[in-house]
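P.,

For your records, the input lines for the assembly:
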Amino acid sequence: MRPDLCLQNAGRRYGLRGPWVLRGVDLTVAPGRLIRVEGGNGSGKSTLLRLLAGIDAPSEGRMTGRPRTAYVPERFPPALPFTAAGYLTHLGRVHGLTRTAAARAAGEWLERLGAAAYADTPMARLSKGSSQKVAVAQALLGEPELLVLDEAWTGLDTEARAELERAVAERTAAGGSVVFVDHDPRRLAGLSDATYAVRDGSLVERASAEPVPSGPQVIVDAQGPPDGRLPAEVHASVSSAEETAPGRYRLTVPAPHSDVVLRALLTARPPWHVASVVQREDPTGSRR
Amino acid sequence: MTALLRYHAALLLRSQRWLPPFLLYAAFLAISIQAGQPVLDSLGYSAAALLPVAAWLARICVTGEPDAARGCVAAAVGPGRAQVACLLVALAGAAALGTVTTLLVTLLSDPVASDHRTRVPLGPACGAGLLAALACALLGTAVGALTSRPLLRSPGRAVLALLLAALLSLVATGSPAQAVVQGLVTGSQKGTVPLPLLPLAAAALVTAAALALSGALASRRSP
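Structure tokens returned:
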């Protein structure tokens, strides 16, 4: 088991005598946790994420337990002299994949994000959204232990946004940690393990008592062996599970987690039978 | 590290920003070196001119990658390693350029000392030229590393500092680059081939220190 990533009394300022952007930050990112960071423009969210990603070192305080990390910046420059697939293959190898594995992962992620058509397009000719897809793909292809997303959804189309939410669910289900900033309150709604707000240069955990709106849900009807108990991975990913008959479960699953749950059910030993999957009709999306 | 070096090498080659320093170097050599000149003199010229070219290459490698792309790589491998890797690519480029130039210059020059009578053996002369070129490539990379991001971030000041530092390291007594070039010129006057191992070792030490400093500061003084 890898250790938690810990920030202890960390602060960051630019220049030797610059004003403190962040100060006295204590934060622990445990494996499998999804952490949301909020704050106004210029509050220091991006600085915090750069510290967590290991791009900047804290000016004071300590940071311990660096996992294998990937980072998606908020704006990705197309000013790189590579094709999309060429850049991703290079980055895949930097993330520790072999040449063939990197090329395959690059193709898969471009396909999943709906940018396969641009694989051989020079980066300089990509649209803003497509280059953001490349930025997202470079972070995901190494299956990082810590994924840091700085407004990674900005500029993506609807399908790619949903795909990135599913990718985040996959990472946390696989034991990876994800820290993200996004201005849309419905982003991964109800799935975060903790929400922090950056205010006046310090980090405060938002009280979990506040009502958290839940996102779209999927109802999965699954039949296991008569004395079957739900796989642990499924248990961790569902909003609620109700046993309707011996071994038969009616699972309410947050939409981004649906693939993770179905994969866990179908690959369990012995495998479960999935009787039906329907989207819950809940237009307000406020009920839990 | 191999993947990182490969990425930065590809970035340098494909960006074509290596072309201006390369052309400037070629133009300088075409003007200052002619076939049939004493070999050690010509090797001294080509090694000396390599230093600012190496510094320019280092600057290109450090500044060529957009900030956001640098962030992605730094998250994956650590900012220090990313910084050192791109400087090593610049060093390798300068060393390769110096090697090719030394071989060409040796082939074109006459195996004689400055008086055009004393014979100078071509093999050892070529060896001395290679060592001198390597020392200048090393020191040039150090100059480039110390006068660009993260140490000097304003481009105007950085370029001025780069030019000044490159000039100083070529003329100031005590600089390894000055020592190797002076060694070749004196050797040509006396008709003996120098073996500049000591200045080369000094240049390697200075460069290692410069790269380590640049790497250590990469995460502290950004963006």
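Two observations worth noting. Chain B has a mean pLDDT of 94. The longest helix of chain B spans residues 79-108.

Regards
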